[in-house]
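Narrative of activities, Objective 1.

The group set out to show that a structural description can be obtained from nothing but a protein's sequence at a throughput compatible with the screening campaign. Below is one input-output pair from the validation batch, recorded exactly as produced.
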Amino acid sequence: MADLTTEQGILEIVSQKNNAKTVIDFGADPTGKTDSSAAFQAAADAVDSTIRVPSWGRYRIDKQVSLRKGNASRKLLIGQSFNHFGNGGERASLFPGPNLEGAMFDGAYIVERIAFRAEGNQKAIAFELDAYANQVIGCSFNGFKRAISTYGGVNQTYARNQFTGCTDGIYQWGGVATVSQFKENLFQYVDNCIVFENEAHGMSFMGNTFERVKGYPIRAKSLLDAAIINNWFEHTNGGGEDVSPVTTSASQQIQSAYTAGNHCQSGFRNIFSDATHSGRVGGVITDKGNLIVRDPTGSATRLKQTGLYQEIDDWAGLRQFIFKAGRAKAAQKSADFLFQTGHKGSHYFEAYDNDGNAQPFSGTFNYRMDADRYHIEKLSSYFGMDGETQKDGYSILTSTPAMMKWSSTEGHRRNMALFSEAKFEDGTLTLKLKELVRNPVFIPVAQGAQIELIEMIEPYQRPTWEHCKGWKITFKDKQMPSEVHMSLTCYENT
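Output recorded for this entry:
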């Protein structure tokens, strides 16, 4: 063995590499007129690992070449140049004979920089991989019914390949496929680009282009823990509108994915960032300026510049939306939960209807008091809060009322906007509300005079509720109070 520290040894190794045998040295016909399968098989049987194809010529394969035999069980099939469509005499291409059925090459390990053309043979496959730690890099496939076939597949890499006019591009059949990468491949006029018959776990799809695709760009029985990043989906080639770029044969089984920067147009539905969630990509999606955490069974949480939103498909059931502060065991307490706005900012609670229009909030605030007791507060449209504590089959009503102050000095009156009229006359303070209120609890406290009588204005009573449109407060000896402080709670208003 040459001494690598000497210039002579380096020159010797370079010379050996440049003089490496190709399949022509084993009898391959570069004109494509005769069968070269025997020459390729001889090369596979003779070399330790790498079968070399020169950068020129057309090589016809009439019989399947096994790359599982010879001095090494895993063979590299390496070309010297790349050719997009696999034609042109100045670059090498391999094609099947008209009667070949199945794979031209069986048990391939690594395939690089070779053009494969079907030449009208729809029964032939370019090659079958041996399914473990394979690499297919810089190759082109033209016109095959199925270009690449592999049983399952573990830790495979497909990078910078081009598929044109094929029915199936990469077809993984049989076993479960795991942890493989599909990077910067181009699929044009292909029916089904990447297909997994079974489950696919931990796949990466990055920087691929799917153009003029008629069937499925990416298809699996279920797709779990995938990364789908910066792919381009354009035109469905007669496949219709609203086509999903990623699908599963099992319902709602695109789960725990991470996606970012994918583009869909001209017939492809954007399943990454659209507002419908059933059957879409589940997991974490960053797309169109949104961060989406989605369950593919009908719900998602979306973070946009304007806020944080829960989204639920029309058919799906309601799901809790939880904000939870952390709890530290060492401190034996939870962290504070803080809603914060800027100086003079406001907090709003509002509801919305089915069309997304803002509505008054009429729900409840529920506070757990202990293991089996709740305090429930209902926020009315503008009369404060009603509350109820429930425990062991009984309840206690509470309230947070609206507070008002009438004063004999007009400039000292506070919060009197609820009333259309507030007038003191002949010993009676008349307070007329702007609208009817239901089940009111009205408590006045006077200063400077004694209350003698409180009467409802326009009262109306039913078995379970009553309403009125205000009150008349009569004072003893017709005295005028200096101030009347009032609280008002309505358990339900009309």
